[in-house]
From TrEMBL:
Molecular function in Gene Ontology: methyltransferase activity
Identification of the protein by name: Methyltransferase
Gene transcribed to yield this protein: BnaCnng15370D
GO biological processes: methylation
Residues annotated as transmembrane: 20-38
PANTHER family per the UniProt record, alphabetical: METHYLTRANSFERASE PMT20-RELATED (PTHR10108:SF1109), SAM-DEPENDENT METHYLTRANSFERASE (PTHR10108)
GO cellular component: cytoplasm; endomembrane system; membrane
Subcellular location: Endomembrane system; Membrane
Record carries keyword Disulfide bond: no
Length: 603
C-alpha cells in the first residue's frame, strides 16, 4: 500500500531484498541437504559392524573416492644393545628426575616426543624362542632373562633356580616355603568361593615371579600380576616369559589403570607395601578396584605377628600395634574380617549399603565417603583419592554372589553395559557373534593361532572383549586394552570374567620388550592416527612383540599401504589378506617378527 492506495509496482529496494531472501533460503536448504548426505555417509564409514554394510559394499561397482594414504619408504636402525630391556615410561635412567616421595619415581613418566627412540630394540645375546606353554610355567631360557641378582637373592626361598642354560621355578615364595600349590590349597579352605567359579579375576600386588598367579590358572582364576620396574629383579618380565599375565605398575600417588569394582580378589604376600601409612591410601585403592563381596588376602607382616615377629626385625608390640591399625582402617572402609589361619588373613568388601551410609552421615569419619564429583572409573594418570568409593546400586548388582559364576558370566550381559552409550545385551550378543566369525577366519589366515605357538596375546583396542571371548578355549590369555580416550567399556570386560587395562597408544605400554606372542588391533589407526603418530605405534608394537611373534592388523584400506610400508621398516614379514567378507573398504595385514641380533653382539 502506498499513500493508502495499492501500488502497481514494488519498490526496487524491496524487490532486491526479496530476491536475496529467496536465494538465502534456497542455499540454506541445499546446504542442509548436502550435510544430511555427508553425515549419513560418515555414519556408514564409522560403523564398527562390517556385516551390516557387506551387501552394499559388494554390490556397489563404485571405487573408493579417497586415495589410500601413502608414505615414503622407511628403514628403522638398530638400537644400542644397552636398550635390550628398555621400558620407555619406567626407565631407571630417568628416575633421578622425579621425586622419591611414596616411590613416585617408579610410576609412569614417559619421554617427550623429542626424546623418543626411533630404533628397533635388539634381543639379548643368545636369545632363543621361548619355551612353549605349559612347560614355560616351570622353566625358561636363562639368556632370555639373564638376571643373576634375583637368582642369588631368592634361590634360598625357592623362587627360582638356575640349572644349566635354564631358570627353573619350583613354586616357592617368602610366605609359602612348602610350595605355592599348598599355599593356595590353604587359601581355598578359607575362601570356598575360589573353588566354584565365584572368584574369577584377581590381582597380585608385588607378585615376585608370579607363581601365585600361575598356580591359579589351573583353578580357573585369571590373575594380573603387578610389580614395578626395578634394576635387578625383573619380576614382570619373568612372569610374562613364563606365560603368566603381568603388567608393570606400583601403588604410589596415582590410581592403578583399572576401573572400580573390577577384581574378585586382591592378594599381597609380603609385598612390602606400607598399607597403614599415609592414612591408608593404598588400602583405599585396593577397596576401589575390588568388587563388592570381593576379597583382600594378606600373608606376611603383621598377620600372625605373635608367632612371626622375631623374623621381621621388630618387636611384638610394634607388630601388634600395626595389626590393630590395619584392622581399624579396613573396618572404616567397609571391609570385614572373613577368615584367618596361620599366616593367611582374609577380608571381604561389604556390599551392604548401611556401612557406606554411616560414613556419609558422620562428617568426622576418616576416610570420608567420596563425593559425586570423583569419577570412580577414572584411572589414567588420576591421583589417588583419600576417600571411600561407595558402590552404587548398579555396581552392587555386579558384586560377587550377584553376577553369574564362571564360565556362565562370560556370556551374560553385565548390568554395567547400560553405562556405555548404546550398550545393551543384544549388542553384546551381536558383538560376540561377530568376533567368533572373525576369529574363525583369523585361524585360516594364521594357523598358529589356537596352537601352543601363541600364548601371550594382546587385543590393543577392544570394546567388550569379544576377541578374547572367542579364544577362551584356546591355550592363550588375552590382555584387553581399552583406550583412555574411548568409551569406558573396561568394566564390562572385567564383569565378563576377562582382564585388561586402560592405555593411551600415543605412549609406551607398561611391559618389558619381547613379552607378547600376538598383537591384534581393529581399526586402531583409523581411530587414533589424528592423535598418535603411526611410526611410534609400530615401533612400540615391535618393542613388546617377541621374535617369531605375530601381528594381526585389521584396518581401513586407506591406511593399509602406509602401515605395510612402516611394517617393512621394522623387518617384519607381512602379507595382506581379505577379511571374512572380502570387502574393499577393509583389509587384514598379517605379519611375523624376525629373530635378529644386534650387529654389536657376538651372535
Amino acid at each position: 500500500m502506498k499513500n493508502g492506495k495499492q501500488s502497481s509496482q514494488p519498490e526496487k529496494g524491496s524487490s532486491r531484498i526479496l530476491s536475496l531472501t529467496v536465494l538465502f533460503i534456497a542455499l540454506c536448504g541445499f546446504s542442509f541437504y548436502l550435510g544430511g548426505m555427508f553425515c549419513s555417509e560418515r555414519v556408514k564409514i564409522e560403523a564398527n559392524d562390517v556385516t551390516s554394510t557387506t551387501t552394499k559394499a559388494v554390490a556397489s561397482p563404485m571405487k573408493p573416492t579417497v586415495s589410500p594414504l601413502q608414505i615414503k619408504s622407511v628403514s628403522f636402525p638398530e638400537c644400542s644393545s644397552e636398550l635390550q630391556d628398555y621400558t620407555p615410561c619406567t626407565d631407571p635412567k630417568r628416575w633421578k628426575r622425579y621425586g622419591v616421595h611414596r616411590l613416585s619415581f617408579l610410576e609412569r613418566h614417559c619421554p617427550p616426543v623429542y626424546e623418543k627412540n626411533e630404533c628397533l630394540i635388539p634381543p639379548p645375546d643368545g636369545y632363543k624362542p621361548p619355551i612353549r606353554w605349559p612347560k614355560s610355567r616351570d622353566q625358561c631360557w636363562y639368556k632370555n632373562v639373564p638376571y643373576d641378582w634375583i637368582n642369588k637373592q631368592k634361590s634360598n626361598q625357592h623362587w627360582l633356580k638356575k640349572e644349566g642354560d635354564k631358570f627353573h621355578f619350583p613354586g616357592g615364595g617368602t610366605m609359602f616355603p612348602r610350595g605355592v600349590s599348598h599355599y593356595v590349597d590353604q587359601m581355598q579352605d578359607l575362601i570356598p568361593e575360589m573353588k566354584d567359579g565365584t572368584v574369577r579375576t584377581a590381582i597380585d600386588t608385588g607378585c615376585g615371579v608370579a607363581s601365585w598367579g600361575g598356580d591359579l590358572l589351573d583353578r580357573g582364576i585369571l590373575t594380573i600380576s603387578l610389580a614395578p620396574r626395578d634394576n635387578h629383579e625383573a619380576q614382570v618380565q619373568f612372569a610374562l616369559e613364563r606365560g603368566i599375565p603381568a603388567i608393570l605398575g606400583v601403588i604410589s600417588t596415582q590410581r592403578l589403570p583399572f576401573p572400580s569394582n573390577s577384581f574378585d580378589m586382591a592378594h599381597c604376600s609380603r609385598c612390602l607395601i606400607p598399607w597403614t601409612e599415609f592414612g591408608g591410601i593404598y588400602l583405599l585403592e585396593i577397596h576401589r578396584i575390588v568388587r563388592p563381596g570381593g576379597f583382600w588376602v594378606l600373608s606376611g607382616p603383621p598377620v600372625n605377628y605373635n608367632r612371626r615377629w622375631r623374623g621381621w626385625n621388630t618387636t611384638m608390640e610394634d607388630q601388634k600395634s600395626d595389626y590393630n591399625k590395619l584392622q581399624s582402617l579396613l573396618t572404616s572402609m567397609c571391609f570385614k574380617k572373613y577368615a584367618q589361619k596361620d599366616d593367611i588373613a582374609v577380608w571381604q568388601k561389604l556390599s551392604d549399603k548401611s556401612c557406606y551410609d554411616k560414613i556419609a552421615k558422620n562428617m568426622e569419619a576418616y576416610p570420608p565417603k567420596c563425593d559425586d564429583s570423583i569419577e570412580p572409573d577414572s584411572a589414567w594418570y588420576t591421583p589417588l583419592r583419600p576417600c571411600v568409593v561407595a558402590p552404587t546400586a548398579k555396581v552392587k548388582n555386579s558384586g560377587l554372589g550377584s553376577i553369574p559364576k564362571w564360565p556362565e558370566r562370560l556370556n551374560v550381559a553385565p548390568e554395567r553395559i547400560s553405562d556405555v552409550h548404546g550398550g545393551s545385551a543384544c549388542g553384546l550378543k551381536h558383538d560376540d557373534g561377530k568376533w567368533k566369525n572373525r576369529v574363525k577366519h583369523y585361524k585360516k589366515v594364521l594357523p598358529a593361532l589356537g596352537t601352543d605357538k601363541i600364548r601371550n596375546v594382546m587385543d590393543m583396542n577392544t570394546v567388550y572383549g569379544g576377541f578374547a571371548a572367542a579364544l577362551v578355549k584356546d591355550p592363550v590369555w588375552v590382555m584387553n586394552v581399552v583406550s583412555s580416550y574411548s568409551a569406558n567399556t573396561l568394566p564390562v570386560v572385567f564383569d565378563r570374567g576377562l582382564i585388561g587395562t586402560y592405555h593411551d597408544w600415543c605412549e609406551a605400554f607398561s611391559t618389558y620388550p619381547r613379552t607378547y606372542d600376538l598383537l591384534h588391533l581393529d581399526s586402531l589407526f583409523t581411530l587414533e592416527s589424528h592423535r598418535c603418530e603411526m611410526k611410534y605405534v609400530l615401533l612400540e608394537m615391535d618393542r613388546i612383540l617377541r621374535p617369531g611373534g605375530y601381528v594381526i592388523m585389521r584396518e581401513s584400506s586407506y591406511f593399509m599401504d602406509a602401515i605395510t610400508m612402516l611394517a617393512k621398516g621394522t623387518r617384519w614379514n607381512c602379507r595382506r589378506e581379505e577379511t571374512e567378507y572380502a570387502v574393499e573398504s577393509e583389509k587384514i595385514l598379517v605379519c611375523q617378527k624376525k629373530l635378529w641380533f644386534s650387529s654389536n653382539q657376538t651372535s
